[in-house]
């Protein structure tokens, strides 16, 4: 029979049992605890491509069984932190944002109105991207932005001339995504770059949907190229305020086009 004192003791013990050395934890709880601590160790001490110690070594280090270590590694593999192969040590992976990107794409496909949620997030990220590019972009960074802009114009010329249909449109939207990714990369902020890479597939979906609204409004692809070219010109000239205003204009236009496209759908 439990008394209040017994219950207090039980809860206190449960708190202490969250350490990785607690062998009497259920396997799932122990593995989750080890995964959290090992994940922190990986982020702070290991670089992508590095091999982790063997399961036996980590089991001794964390004072748990090899089975617990194996389950913890499976958790970290699901988070994209490590890769595992039978008979080999786990290897630290390069984060690529695939899981986050898949979540965004799934959200958009299940509810097109999520495109507006994405656009709200982009308003903050895109403006910061422009500001950092103006302050830090190198010649190589600007060249990458210009290369994406050139690819956009090449595809736009084909589309506006009525040629190649979906293939040309896909090429245009991919180049448009590359433009925004290159802009983020040129600013030198790794977290911002990671976010744009993770959003790649959802941005492609958003740009494709926005293009439907653009067509309804009778706008050409060259119009969109000109607005992107204006941003590039201001960044090259290191003109922060006009560049930010040009990006806001693009986002405002994208919102209007999305509303037209989603309303039509």
Write structural notes for this entry.
The protein contains twelve helices and two strands; from the N terminus they run ααααββαααααααα. It has helices at residues 4-16, 27-45, 55-62, 66-78, 98-110, 114-136, 139-160, 165-186, 190-198, 200-216, 221-236, 240-264; strands spanning 82-83, 91-92. The model is unreliable at 1-25 (pLDDT under 50). By secondary structure, it is mainly alpha-helical. The chain has a two-stranded antiparallel sheet with strand order 1-2.
List keywords for this structure.
265 residues; mainly alpha; Arc Repressor Mutant, subunit A; Four Helix Bundle (Hemerythrin (Met), subunit A); 2 domains; two-stranded antiparallel ribbon; 12 helices; 2% strand; elongated; disordered N terminus
* Whole-number tally of structural domains: 2
Q: What characterizes the major β-sheet?
A: 2 strands, antiparallel
Structural class comes to mainly alpha
Number of DSSP-assigned strands: 2
CATH fold node name of the largest domain = Four Helix Bundle (Hemerythrin (Met), subunit A)
Please write the string of helix (H) and strand (E) elements: HHHHEEHHHHHHHH
What is the oligomeric state here? Answer: single chain
First CA to last CA: what distance? 63 Å
| Overall spatial form | elongated
CATH homologous superfamily placement of the largest domain: GntR ligand-binding domain-like
- Report the radius of gyration as a whole number of Å: 25 Å
Query: Which regions have little confidence, pLDDT < 50, spanning 5+ residues?
Result: 1-25
Percent strand: under 5%
Mean pLDDT: 85
